[in-house]
TrEMBL record:
Lineage: Bacteria, Deltaproteobacteria, Dissulfurirhabdaceae, Dissulfurirhabdus
Protein name: dTTP/UTP pyrophosphatase
NCBIfam families: maf
Keyword Cytoplasm: yes
Catalytic activity field: UTP + H2O = UMP + diphosphate + H(+); dTTP + H2O = dTMP + diphosphate + H(+)
Highest taxon listed in the record's lineage: Bacteria
Cofactor: a divalent metal cation
Any GO BP: nucleotide metabolic process
Site feature: Important for substrate specificity: 24, 83, 166
Amino acid sequence: MHQRQRPGPFRAATPLILASASPRRRELLASLGLDFEVVPSQAPEPPPMAGERPDAYALRLARAKALDVAAPRPGALVIGADTIVVLGDRVLGKPRDAADAMATLTRLAGRTHVVITACCLAGAGGAVREFAVETRVRLAHPGQEALAAYAAGGEPLDKAGSYAIQGAGAFLVERIEGSPSNVIGLPLKELAAALVELEAIRPASPGPAAGGRGPA
Ligand SMILES: Cc1cn([C@H]2C[C@H](O)[C@@H](COP(=O)(O)OP(=O)(O)OP(=O)(O)O)O2)c(=O)[nH]c1=O
């Protein structure tokens, strides 16, 4: 699938591929103004290994997704990412069903957790840049009834941590420290900086509306 370019602060300077099936990641990357292909990775997402740090785990999955898509596609820069929710030292992935979502939300409610999104930028020769970004999120406890209704509503099902700050799940969010886009699936500030440094993207030239002085 091809994501058409739309207005935004950057332009692609090299062919870019987003190795993701996530519509949120597609939207976030497109918001930068970039033209790119979408090729979801078929890499498996195994659970963390014993003793593996959460950021190392997220990086391992992001790398597997990027390399899976990059290997047969020379000349492109591939972006792979993985988002996990971490409470204490426990990694909470996507829920199996509404009951599992309710169990996760009950654990998270009234507490602060960390959302980690790891990104791997890779070419056919291997990974060229990797980083993991953390955002701290404190969820309120709105009461069991509201939690159960939200868990049953469907939105939590494909989301790490069983909530979506960009959707109805915003009603749960008491405080967020760090990048909001990182929680939704891509840390846009860090990703744009890495892509600029690799000369894979560059600032877009300002359109006619920018630059000149408007009416006083
Ligand atoms: C906490 C939170 C997670 N999420 C989403 C982001 C990710 O899409 C998802 C975590 O799953 P991931 O396994 O990171 O990604 P994915 O399976 O959706 O897509 P792919 O592996 O093909 O790239 O949870 C939100 O959209 N909003 C939120 O507030």
